[in-house]
Each structure stands twice: as C-alpha cells, then as structure tokens.
Design a protein that fits this description.
With 170 residues, the chain is of the alpha+beta class. Helix content is 30%, strand content 35%.
Length: 170
C-alpha cells in the first residue's frame, strides 16, 4: 500500500515536511510537558485543538470545586495554562461552570467543555449549569454560539443582562 494514498495530493513535499517536523516537535514537547504537569496535577487527557496542535489536559480537584486546564504542546510548560474552566459541585446531580478563561478562537474552550462533559458522565452528574452575567455581555453572542454548539440550552435576558445555560446528559 502506498503512503501517497493517505496524503493530500495538493500539498508539496516542503509543506508535508514542515507539518511532520511540527508534529515531531510537539510530541517531544508533550513528553516533557507531561513530566512537568504530572508533578503537581492529574493529567486526564491529551487532545488536538482547532488548529490541530496537541494539548495536555489536566485537572486540580478540591472537595467542592475543580479546575480543568489545557496546555498546548507548542511550547514548554512553565506552570501556566493556556485555557482553564473553573467549576463547582452544586449538588449530587449538578456541576456548575464558574468561569472559562484563556485565549479565544483557538478551540481550547471546546476541548475543555468536552472534558467537563466526560467528567460529568464519569461522576454520574446529570446537569452542567452556568450563569451569563453582566460582564459577559460584550461577547454574549459568541457565548451563545459556543454553548449552543455544545448542546447547552441557553436562556438570555438582554434587558437584565443576565442568563443561564444548562446541559443535560441524555
């Protein structure tokens, strides 16, 4: 079987070499990052971002709260995440999103929200909820699109500049 059957014919050898070099670099960086991150946190996944870069996803759990963090493997881990989602346990059936932080439009939020859903399923939580507050209204349309894309019900009161989101595992 020929390798070229799996390669996009429109790309030239230089583009393919650059892509392979980038992947090789990221895998090396991932190995180093995993060692560093595992010293302080529980690593829960390795995933690809919207830009097809590798990322390490890790968690810091407390008794009533936890934070899921993402570090992209294009650079060394120096103790800082690229994106994070802070959540709290509301009750035995519900996880509540307190905040999502980090760079926008890189796919980090999608990776994190999918990990949050996995945790909810593993812990037998039926709901993920969150609030949309006044400080969110400069980007409320982007938030609505994001949550709808991830199958949340989104209710927004534009007059009160507030809202809520809810995801139900079905």
């Amino acid at each position: 079987m020929s390798y070229t059957a799996f390669v996009d014919i429109d790309r030239n050898k230089e583009e393919l070499k650059e892509e392979l070099d980038s992947i090789e670099f990221q895998l090396f960086r991932m190995q180093e990052n995993v060692k560093e991150i595992a010293k302080k946190f529980e690593i829960i996944s390795i995933d690809r971002t919207k830009e097809e870069n590798w990322a390490v996803i890790y968690v810091d759990k407390k008794s009533t709260t936890f934070q899921i963090m993402l570090h992209e493997c294009t650079k060394p881990f120096r103790g800082n995440w690229d994106s994070a989602i802070e959540v709290e346990y509301k009750n035995e059936r519900t996880i509540h999103i307190c905040d999502i932080k980090g760079e926008e439009n890189k796919g980090f939020g999608s990776v994190l929200i999918n990990q949050l859903k996995e945790i909810a399923r593993e812990e037998n939580k039926q709901f993920i909820t969150g609030d949309i507050v006044q400080r969110d209204f400069d980007h409320v349309h982007r938030l609505k699109h994001f949550y709808c894309k991830h199958y949340f019900n989104v209710n927004i009161d534009h007059n009160q500049q507030s809202g809520e989101i809810i995801w139900t595992d079905s």
